[in-house]
Amino acid sequence: RDMGTVQRQIGQAEAIWGAARAYLHENHSRLWESANKDQPIPTADRIGVRLASTHAIRQAAEVVDIAYNLIGSTAIFGSSPVQRRFRDIHVITQQVQGQMYHYDTAGQFFLGMEPQGSI
After folding, report:
1. Which of 51-55, 83-87, 94-98, 111-115 has the highest mean pLDDT?
2. Taking the CB of the first residue and of the last residue of the chain, which one, N or C, has fewer CB atoms within 10 A?
């Protein structure tokens, strides 16, 4: 707590999560607005939510990794709340929504290509 590197990493973790959370909320709000209209949801909104969701999962894993590394070997014990969060978030990164290929799909869309993955 009193070390500059700890303070810096806590600040970085907060910024990482805050930015990912804001991006996720922005895209979910846009999708919600589209869903409340009597028309199909635009591909851009569907891509946005997919990308923001995957990004939030990946950034959450990075934040948990920061905590895990700061705590050191204490984090490996079952009594550590970080141990459980570390396991949980890394499992989620391996589920469908957390897969890296969603970045490929979004990139294809933003480059004007037909997205190959599920949106």
Report:
1. 51-55
2. N
**Sign of the CA dihedral running 20, 25, 30, 35:** positive
d(CA 66, CA 9): 7
* 8 Å CB contact between 58 and 12: no
Cα 112 to Cα 6, 48, 99, 101, distances in angstroms: 42, 15, 22, 17
* 30-52 residue pLDDT tens: 999 999 998 999 999 999 999 99
Report how far residue 41's alpha carbon sits from residue 71's, in angstroms, rounded to the nearest whole number. 44
Residue type, 102: H
Rounded CA-CA distance 57/91 in Å is 10
Q: pTM of this prediction?
A: 0.88
Nearest to 62 by CA among 20, 2, 24, 1: 20
